[in-house]
Amino acid sequence: MSKLIYTFLKNSFLYEDKFLINNYSKFSNKEIEKEFERYRNYILKNIHNLYAEITIYANQIKIFNTNTLMNFSKIKQMSIYLDQVIITDPLFEISTPTNTTQNIFNEYLGVKKDNLINRKNLVEIIQKFKNAEILVESTYLKFFPTSYFFEPKSEIPFTYSENQYGNILPSNIMDLYYENKQMRSFKKNGQYLTINKNFEIDRTIEVLFKNDDTEFMNMYNLFEREIISINEKEKKIEFAMTLPNTPPSKESFDSWVTQSINQSSIAHFRKISMDISLSTKLKAQYITTSSFVSELLKSQFNIETNIKSNVTDLMLNFDLNFFEDIDIRDLMSIRKNDGEEFELFRRELEKQLRDLKLERDVSKIKSKIEDVKHELEEVQIAAINSKIKSIKNKSSIDIGIGLAGLGASVFTSGISTFATLVSIFNGYKTYTEYQNEIKENPSYFLWKIKSINR
Fold first, then answer.
1. Is the CB of residue 242 less than 8 Å from the CB of residue 220?
2. What are the angstrom distances between the C-alpha of 359 and each of 128, 311, 314, 353?
C-alpha cells in the first residue's frame, strides 16, 4: 500500500528532519546508496500490495500520470472532483541502479557521470513525501513505482531495418510525428557536448517533438563500424565501433537522420502505449501534460470521451480552484465525512461543464468556467447563507414559544406540558429542515470548506 511507503520512510534516516536540513551531511554516498537499495527492495517486495490497494475500487474516478512535473497545487485542486490520483514514486526512480553498459558508452562518448548523489534533489523528494502524507493517509494520493516498468535492459540491443524503420508505425501517425519534429545537432567539445547554432552535419543529434515533455530515447550517435570476424557456425559477429572527430558525408548524415526520426517516433509511441497499458491495469484514466500526446491520441484514435474524462481534462488544463489557502487536512476530512455532499457537488460540476465537451475555443472555455465558478461559489453559497438566516429566524420564534409555554407551566400545570412538547418538536423539525435543505444545495461542499477557512 502507499502507506507502506511511509512505514519504511518513518524508520529511515532519510525522513528525519535533523538530517534533512543539512543535506544528510552525516552520511556518506555509500550509506545513502545502501538506503536506496533497501528502499528499492522493500517496494518491489510489496509491489503487489500497492497494485491491489489502487485497484480495489474499480468505479472510482481516478487518474494516472507518469510525469513528475505534475505539482501538488494541481493535485490539491483536483481533489474537489477526483477520488484518487496516482503518480510516480520519485524516490524509487532515483534508487534505480546504474546501467553498467550504458555507463561504458557514456564514458567513451566523453559524457562522464560523477556518480555523486544529488543531495539537493533528494531533500526535495523527501520534502515532497512529507507534504503529501495527509493526502496519502486519506487514500486520495497514491505513489506507484511506475519507473520500474520503463527501466532499460542491461544489454543494448542491435537491430537492423532495410527501410530505416519507416514501416513500423502507420503512415498517418508517422506523418504527425514528422510534422512536429524538432532537431538539434551537437559538437563534441572535450567531455561536453555543445549545441550547433544551425542543424549542422555532425555525429550526435537529438530528436524532439513540439509541445512535448515525454521522456523517451531521443539522442543518437553516428558510429563507424568495422567488422573484425564472423562466426557463422555460432552465429556471432565481432566488430569495432568508433566515433571519429570528423563529420560524416551528407548522404550518410541525411540517411541517419531519417532513421533517427523514425526510431524516435517508435520509441515515443511505445512509451505512450506502455503508459496507457499501465493505467488500464491500474483501472485509472490516463492523463498527460504533453499537448503533442493529447493531439496525437485525440486526432488519430477517435477516442470517445465521457463527462468524467472531460471534467478531469478541464481541471488539468484550466484553473478550477474553488478555494484558496485551505488546510489540506480540513479538505480531506470534509471529503471523508461529507461523502454524499461531495458526490452531489461533483454531479453538479459535471452538469455545469457538460456543454464544453466539443468546445475548442479556449476563450469560450475560460468564460464558461468563470460562469460556473461564480454560480457555485457566489450565487449558491449566498443562497445557503440566506437559507440559514431564515431558518435561524424561524428557530428563534419556536424557541420563544417553547420558553413561553414553559413559563406558563407554573400556572397551568399539565396543559403547558403539551405546549412545551409541541414547541420542542417544532424546533427539532426546524433543525431537520436545516440539515436537509442546506445539504441538498450542490454548493454545500464548497460552503463547508469556506466556513472552516474563515
1. no
2. 36, 13, 11, 11
Domain carrying residue 145: 2-154
3-state secondary structure of 220: strand
* 49 found inside a domain: yes
Boundary residue ending a domain (154, 188, 209): 154
Q: Does one domain contain both 12 and 142?
A: yes
In the chain, which residues have pLDDT < 50?
1, 397-431
Dihedrals φ, ψ of 415, to 5°? -65, -40
Q: What is the pLDDT of residues 239-257, one digit of tens each?
A: 888 888 889 999 999 999 9
Residues 6+ apart with CB under 8 A from 42: 4, 8
Q: How many CA atoms lie within 13 A of 31 on its CB side?
A: 9
Residue type at position 174 = M
135 and 206 together in one domain: no
Sheet with 181-189, side-by-side order of all strands: 192-195, 181-189, 204-209, 219-221
The answer to whether 424 and 392 have CB atoms below 8 angstroms apart is no
- For the chain, the domain total comes to 3
110 and 36 together in one domain: yes
Co-location of 13 and 82 in the same domain = yes
Same domain, 227 and 144: no
- The answer to whether 315 and 356 have CB atoms below 8 angstroms apart is no
Nearest to 133 by CA among 33, 19, 227, 10: 10
CA gap 271, 276 in Å, rounded: 9
Measuring CA to CA, how many Å separate 69 from each of 148, 176, 208, 309, 368? 18, 25, 18, 20, 27
The confidence score (pLDDT) of residue 16 equals: 95
Q: What is the DSSP letter of 263?
A: H
